[in-house]
Amino acid sequence: MDRRTFLNSGLAAGAVVAGIRSEGLAAEDKNVKILGISCSPRKGKTTTTAIQVALDAAKTLSPRIDVELIDLGGLDVSDWQGGAKPSAGMSAINDDFDVVLPKFRVQNLGGLIIGSPSYFPSMSSLCKAFLARLAVLRSPELLLADKPVGALSVGAYRNGGQEIVIQQILTAMLCHEVFGVGGKPSAHQGATLWNAYGDDIMKDEFGITSATKLGIRVAEAALGLS
User: Fold this and answer.
1) For residue 128, is it left (φ>0), alpha (ψ between -120 and 50) or beta?
2) Are 131 and 165 in the same domain?
3) pTM score of the predicted model
């Protein structure tokens, strides 16, 4: 190999290495989207506020974190009929779910925070329908696989079944092969909030702190997995 050939090969190799490094930097700089979904039939109320608190906390972790709130309150989301297998495109039922579905198909989706009120004590029927309809994202590929998912719940009592609702949400999401995450200490399972102040959930200092910790934990996991 003469000197010119050697130099040319060296320059080519250097260009390859530089390209790899630039791709790595680009990956590190890529924004990560975290979606927060409020599954309360009461639009803009306590569950929505709690989700927004978690998303705001997630944003503080890194400028790479993008967040978006999806408030299902007032939308028509029908339950999935098990015998009607969802298609790979839009869902099999024509309702408002098809409006929000594309938000879960973005390439930079990094994680989810899902919230529901506690009713008797269980997730809302809207939350149950929403989780069932997400089945469309399981075929032909698992679009949510390996994404961190955190959950929160708002109850009328301090011990009003919030942790049961969190468990129900995370159990359903395991069908997508996600990573279920909790919050920091005092919010290990997720965020639990108490609506004891006439819909002013911000007065529940303990609950708001748990929502903040949940948002930070989901953001940490999303960045670590991106």
Assistant:
1) alpha
2) yes
3) 0.84
Q: Which helix (H) or strand (E) holds 115?
A: strand 109-117
Q: Are residues 82 and 110 in the same domain?
A: yes
CB 132 within 8 A of CB 80: yes
Neighbour-count burial for 44-66, b at 16+ CB within 10 Å, e otherwise: ebbbbbbbbbbbebbbebeebbb
Q: Give the separation between CA 192 and CA 14, rounded to whole angstroms.
A: 53
Q: Are residues 37 and 65 in the same domain?
A: yes
- pLDDT for 23 equals 40
Residue 12 has pLDDT above 50, yes or no: no
CA dist 118 and 152 (Å) reads: 10
Mean pLDDT over each residue of the chain, to the nearest integer: 87
Q: CATH code at 203?
A: 3.40.50.360
Supply the range of the domain harboring residue 19.
1-30
* 141 and 188 inside one domain: yes
